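Interim report to the steering committee. The following record documents the input for Homogentisate phytyltransferase 1, chloroplastic (397 residues).
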Amino acid sequence: MESCLPRSFLTPSVLSTDRKNWRGQDISKFCFPTQVSGSRERDILRVYYVRCNVANIKEKLALSRRRNREWIVHAASRQPLESGPGEFNSGRIRDSVKNAVDAFYRFSRPHTVIGTALSIISVSLLAVEKLSDISPLFFTGVLEAVVAALFMNIYIVGLNQLSDIDIDKVNKPYLPLASGEYTVGTGVMIVTSFSIMSFWLGWIVGSWPLFWALFVSFLLGTAYSINLPMLRWKRSAVVAAMCILAVRAVIVQIAFFLHIQTHVYKRPLVLSRPLIFATAFMSFFSVVIALFKDIPDIDGDKIFGIQSFTVRLGQERVFWICISLLEMAYGVAVLVGSVSSCLWSKVLTVLGHALLGYLLWSRAKSIDLRSKVAITSFYMFIWKLFYAEYLLIPLVR
């Protein structure tokens, strides 16, 4: 009997009205041809309403599912949902690798790494006497020396950071140990690993000049930084400068020259004129680096009692001492180049050193010594002059 009711009539708005409104619709004439009691009529309508309501709910659920499928397809056309977690994980991995490389890059102090590599290559070229000396044997010997020395370089700068964490929080807060990116345990693991690899490589190469260069660098680098009785030589300005001079000016020049001369080429020991010049010139440069590196670090050194020349004499005075020493070195280099018997060597060394001396003086006159950023930038400029000198040294003949 319920099926005779039209669906459009049995809408929720009609069925939800009160009984008075139902009777006003003349339901008996519309759907009940025979006599039906009022209570029976209402029961029939309620049953039908429930069935219609269930049908409406099912239709709405179906429509909702359809719309959800359409939204998923639309989203998939722009960025697949299945690849989302994978892309997210790969992005996190890339970020982690990038951060790890950046932290190690800062930990290794790249300006010292570049300086070490250039100095060894430059000094090795001083042992070259003729074009045929540039051979695979030469490149192998240079590569062995560079890799072993870089491992030791990372040990030395890493140990210095481990010993200066509190100072670096003031002077160099961007370094991994000072910033907290590396734990002390991580730093110890890195410096221990690189020192072992350096000695291992120096031993298997079988070159005594190379091995002794690594060993003496290890001893001086450890004594310079480590905080033990009778050690931590960086607290004394004079001793600290002598350590840097010994490593940068003497060991690098003589030991790595002998590595190529005696171990690679199997020639007798000869201290050539270019080697003597390189050792003398880099002695000046090493002293300047030892003095200048403390100029931007004066705040932390004062707090922790490091009696550097900058703390004792003041930034401006030490700055101009460094400039004067370098200008003297460039003047001597011009004189040495001018007496060379080789025309191309004379021209290149005289013009090259004169140009570097002019660039140094021009930039020194414009620096603002009240700005730590400007002083640090000038310190990096001195390292660039250091690199440039190692490009000129092989030309001295």
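Residues 2-78 form one domain. The committee is asked to note this result when reviewing the revised timeline.
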